[in-house]
Amino acid sequence: MTDIPTIDLSGKTVDQSDLDRQLAARGPHRLIGADLSGLVFGEIDLSGWQFENCNLGHCRLVRTRLSETRWSACKAAFADFGRADLIDAEIVASDFNNAQFRQAILTSAAFRRSKLTGADLTDARTIDLTLEEVLAVDARLPKVSFRDQKLTQVDFSGALLEGADFRDAVFDDCSLRDAQLLRARFEGADLRGADLGGIRLGDAAHFRGAIISRAQATALLKELGLRVL
Question: Cα(123)–Cα(64) distance, rounded to whole angstroms?
Fold first, then answer.
């Protein structure tokens, strides 16, 4: 990978004018240690930028172009990425709890070893979205497509998964406990590596065509109030 210029703002106070000046740099840059809490990015093109150990809590990145960006050890709690372009973006070891991704473009984006607790991906474009070791408790993921994906250590506990597409997906050490699954699809999905606790009678029908273990089948029957002898 070709080296790109580095902007190290560790320990420095950054206001809106400072941010605007730094983002005016031509071409991708590597931004380190910046505390950008509450600042506004706007519709600027930051394709290919790298963010390391940055704080973007409550930032507004609405319609910001962030394709092929790399995020490492960043915090972006309650940040607004609405309608942002995050095609091929990679987020690693970062905390994006309660971030907004409404109508964002997340095609081929990847979240690894990161937190999406309470995040909202309503109406986001999620073709080939990758989640690995992600905490997505109480996240809003309606109609998100995970078709043919392998989900590794993803915690969807309490998440809104209405209309989500899990067809032919493989779950490895994941949780769907107490998730909201109205109209979700699981045909061909391998759920043997998923915690299905808290499943209600109406939800069980959504698993038609999925693969579960004998132990899970017994647990589901108990959840539905049936005695297994």
Answer: 17
- In degrees and rounded to multiples of 5, residue 114 shows phi and psi of -130, 170
Instruction: Give pLDDT < 50 ranges for the chain.
Output: 1
CB atoms within 10 A of CB 159: 29
Q: Which two tokens stand for residue 75?
A: 């915090």
- Angstrom distance (rounded) from CA 76 to CA 192: 33
The two tokens of residue 28 are 């991708």
Pair type for strands 174-175 and 194-195: parallel
Using CA atoms, how far residue 28 sits from 45, 47, 48, 212, in Å, is: 9, 7, 5, 46
Query: In whole angstroms, how large is the CA radius of gyration of the chain?
Result: 20
Q: Which residues, at least 6 apart from 52, have a Cβ–Cβ distance to it below 8 Å?
A: 30, 31, 32, 33, 72, 73, 74
List of residues 6+ apart from 101 with CB closer than 8 A: 81, 82, 84, 86, 119, 120, 121, 124
The CA–CA distances, whole Å, from 225 to 37, 112, 151, 220 equal 49, 37, 29, 9
Quote the tokens at residue 124: 């986001």
From residue 79, how far is each of 99, 181, 224 by CA, in Å? 5, 26, 39
Per-residue confidence (pLDDT) for residue 228, from 0 to 100: 61
pLDDT digit string (tens) for 91-110?
Answer: 999 999 999 999 999 999 99
The size of the chain, in residues, is 229
